[in-house]
Structure of Glycoside hydrolase N-terminal domain-containing protein:
Amino acid sequence: MVTHGYTRRGVLTTGLGAAAGSLLTSGLAADPARAARSATDNPLTLWYGKPAAAWLEALPVGCGRLGAMVFGGVATERLQLNEDSIWAGGPHNYDSPEALAALPQIRQLVWEDKWQAAQNLADQKFLGRPSEQAPYQVLGDLALTFPGSAEFTEYRRELDLTRAVTTVTYVRDGVRHTREVFASNPDQVIVVRHTADKPGAVTFQAAFSSAQSSTTAAAGKATIALDGVSGDTQGMQGEVRFQALARAEAKGGTVRADGGTLIVEGADEVTLLISMGSSYRSFKDVGGDPAQVAERHLGRASRRPYEVLLRKHVRDYQRLFGRVAIDLGTSAAVALPTDERIARKQLDTDPQLAALYFQYGRYLLISSSRSPGYAANLQGVWNDSLTPAWESKYTININCEMNYWPAAPANLTECMEPLFDLIKDLAESGARTARTQYGAGGWVAHHNTDGWRGTAPVDFAFYGVWPTGGAWLCLTLWEHYLYTGDERRLREHFPLIKGSVEFFLDTLQTDPRTGYLVTNPSHSPEVGHHEDGGENVSICAGPTMDMQILRDLFGAFEEASTILRLAEDMRERARQARARLVPTQVGHLGQIQEWQEDYRGDAALSRSRHISHLWGLFPSHQIDPRLTPDLATAARRTLELRGEAGAGWSLAWKINFWARLLDAPEAYKRLSNLLLPARTAPNMFDLHPPFQIDGNFGGTSGITEMLLQSHGDQVHLLPALPAAWPAGSFSGLRARGGFEIDLEWSGGAVLRGKICSDLGRKLTLRTAKDVTVTEHGRPVKGERPEPGVIVFNTRRGGVYDVAVSA
Ligand code: FUC
């Protein structure tokens, strides 16, 4: 039951009911040592009975800028290391100088439905130079080699999500060894501590290695270094220089660096600090001194005892992680190793696995997207390759945005800061692309970007000529405002939104056939609408997704400009343009039309994993079962026609779609499928396949959308609660309008909850059955326009208790 005995936004101190209470007391207690007491008691743990044999079994730690995959080996421990600015190549302007001259002809060919000719011309003239962007790359490995027999017993490896610490423990040659690894945001180092239950029993050698062009050396009495430079790519020379340092401090025994090898002998316990730096200062400047960065962080951290480093790390992490608790019920399955739980394929009898997945998504976001540091890319920050899938870049026609879907509702808006930094960069490089390729003002970004903030179309015209990526990103700035009401940040972000609007006011074209204002050239991401001259063509004018995105962009601009009293001259132009966009239309199969025209045949029957024309259903709310029932019916039909093909991220998107359609069984089915071994690796990384982190974040968002929605000016409690979670609770989820919500339910219905109002806005609260709302025990005065809805004014800082009506 929800009680008043816990502090807002802080560490929860008392129970939300039996099951939730055990989660909280086992994990989120202020005392890290107590929390560590017994990991078996802590269901927010990923754990395994054997070392990782493959990368997808290793456990990720990260502090935003740095990441490591921890294998938990006994004879050899492998730490695969990442630093988030190591991109192949160097600062580069991708814009095509030939694009602008070709643009009128491409547009004309599109008006004439000469798609193949249009797409070919775009391939020749309109793509970036080079036409592929640079990969994000691995830094290297640190291997720890321990002498001893091949035998070991009592092995356990775990990742405690409540503290963001991995631990491996085993008995070898009669000695119990324990090794903890974490990545500290406050200290900007990765910390490894190895202890043994017998004095003098810790002996190992540590050495760096890397597939990058690199060298290793001693860098002091107890320190080794790896120096390297990122790889060449696409005719661009690798320019990001980096350094990693590892320093050991031992209690008892000896430590020395011998060349590139660190030798620890006969120690009682060892703390190993790993620091990394690069020469990347910005997308335009790689002139930094990596050694200075690595040395600065290492020097500072070396002066702190292990206990202090751990305490600071846990406190910093829990300040974010501890804001949200969730309990979806529990079963005997929680006692099984995590990989076995996934292999069972039975989410129905293991509801806690969904809660673990939800919290793992929050863990991954905190670990891969923190300041200082860059935005979470396709693999967050974790990548073991020089040539990762899709270059581990930022794909902004869905994947990058999906990474940030859970940030605001799951109470982690701070993790959006690196994304906002990325958007600022893109507004700069994208202004050049707007000028060079379109002769337009403002800024534009197409479907991909990289460390060099490429904004020109890339890959092939089929995939790349899509000018709406930057506009979608701008809407994350607006969402931040909707959740937080932070006007100061909105003012800071406003020029980015305005710049995107300027680009579209300059480039939108009146379709000579329909009179609508449309994008041209563009496409519905990665979906062909015709075979033309033997080629699959996607190029078109005014695809539905563009229109939906621009409707929200212009709307956000108009509202922001009104709130801030800025850019009044542009406001009316944006309003007029918005009214001339193509509306979302229903096609001949009863589906949401993906394009302006209701193409027949294969186009309407595409089984693509991209479902871009439902952007208006989620993340937007232009399609809503209550406000636009006909479009909602067409959205449902669209999902049925599209089928189940797709990547992890596509399944994750479908959870969110079905939740927005208020269809709990369908949403839950997609969640169950996402948690199958085909889509969830043993370490719970999402599988496209291969690993791509967006599905983790989209899944976390989907679970949130099943429990709480806040759009269309109302807050809806339990909008799509599946039968598998009849009783449960959450606390700390956020709703648009500045509300923070705790809730407990039973028998599939709201029992009681608590709503804190940050901004003092009017609240429309929707539940399946009527609830009463009280403040300090007194009923609030509210209107009840329909059953299950109560509308009332809140006070800034007010706390409202919600209870099922007697
Ligand atoms: C788009 C998607 C792929 C993948 C890639 C990173 O191209 O179609 O499925 O997610 O981005």
Notes: Residues 378, 390, 395, 399, 526, 609, 647, 649, 688, 692 surround alpha-L-fucopyranose (CB under 6 Å). The chain is about 30% helix and 25% strand.
